[in-house]
Amino acid sequence: DAGVIQSPRHEVTEMGQEVTLRCKPISGHNSLFWYRQTMMRGLELLIYFNNNVPIDDSGMPEDRFSAKMPNASFSTLKIQPSEPRDSAVYFCASTLYQGDYGYTFGSGTRLTVV
Amino acid sequence: QQQVKQSPQSLIVQKGGIPIINCAYENTAFDYFPWYQQFPGKGPALLIAIRPDVSEKKEGRFTISFNKSAKQFSLHIMDSQPGDSATYFCAASIDSGGSNYKLTFGKGTLLTVNP
C-alpha cells in the first residue's frame, strides 16, 4: 500500500486566492482526519470523517475553510480566500480503528500564503 | 483549552541516555494514550500506545508509564541513539465501542540525541 497520499507537497499562493488540498486515504480505512501543524499551536485537528460523514468540524478556524469527502477514497480541504496566517503544514491521516492501528499520516502539504 | 500538556519542549541527551517526556491530561473520559514520532518532512507515526488498565507498557527501547490517579503519562527511551532524534507527541482520545474519536495532541518535544 502506498500509504496516505497528499497533494500537492508544497503550495505557494497569494493572499486572497483559493487553495485546495487533496488526500487519498489508505484503502479500507473508514476514518479520515485533517490536521494543521504550526510551531506556535502544534497539531490542531480541523475536521474528521467517519464513513465519509463529517463528525466534528469544531476545529475549522472559520468559514473560509471547508472540507469534503465525496467517497471513501478522496477528501479535499479548501481555503477560500487564503490569508498569510493560514501558512502551515496540513496533514491528512486515516485509520481503520485507531485503538489497534493508530493513525497513518500522509507526508503533509506545506502551504505558504504570501 | 489545552487538554494535553506536554513537557519539556526540547530535550538534549547523550547517546545511551534515557530521555523522559511527560504529559498530563484533564479529561477523565480519555482512555487511549498513544505516542507519535515525527521526523523532519514526514507525518507523525505511531510509536507505542497504552490504555489505563495497565501502568506500564514496553516495546523495545520505548516504555510508557501511566499514572491514572495523577492523570499523567510519560515516555522513556532506553539506550537512546542519534537515530531517535525526532519530535515526539503524546496524545489522548476516547476509545470505546470500536468507533474512532479524535486524538488530541500535546505540543511536542524536540529530542536531540548527541553521538
Average of per-residue pLDDT values of chain B: 93
Biggest sheet record of chain B: 6 strands, mixed
Helix/strand order of chain B, N-terminal first: EEEEEEEEEEE
Overall strand count of chain A: 11
First-residue to last-residue Cα separation of chain A: 36 Å
The amount of beta strand of chain A, in percent, is over 45%
How would you characterize the overall build of this protein?
The complex is a heterodimer of chains A (114) and B (115). Chain A has 114 residues and is mainly β. Chain A contains one helix and eleven strands; from the N terminus they run βββββββββαββ. Chain A has one helix spanning 98-101; strands at 5-7, 10-13, 19-24, 31-38, 42-50, 53-56, 65-71, 74-79, 88-95, 104-105, 109-113. Chain A is globular and about 40 Å long. The mean pLDDT of chain A is 94. With 115 residues, chain B is mainly β. In chain B, β7 (62-67) and β8 (72-77) form a beta hairpin. The termini of chain B are far apart. At the A-B interface, β5, β9, α1 and β10 of A face β5 and β10 of B.
Entry summary:
With 114 residues, chain A is mainly beta. Chain A has one helix at residues 98-101; strands spanning 5-7, 10-13, 19-24, 31-38, 42-50, 53-56, 65-71, 74-79, 88-95, 104-105, 109-113.
List the helices and strands and how they pair.
The complex is a heterodimer of chains A (114) and B (115).
Chain A: E1 5-7, E2 10-13, E3 19-24, E4 31-38, E5 42-50, E6 53-56, E7 65-71, E8 74-79, E9 88-95, H1 98-101, E10 104-105, E11 109-113
Parallel strand pairs in A: 2-11
Antiparallel strand pairs in A: 1-3, 3-8, 4-5, 4-9, 5-6, 7-8, 9-10, 9-11
Chain B: E1 4-7, E2 10-14, E3 20-25, E4 33-38, E5 45-50, E6 56-59, E7 62-67, E8 72-77, E9 86-92, E10 104-105, E11 109-114
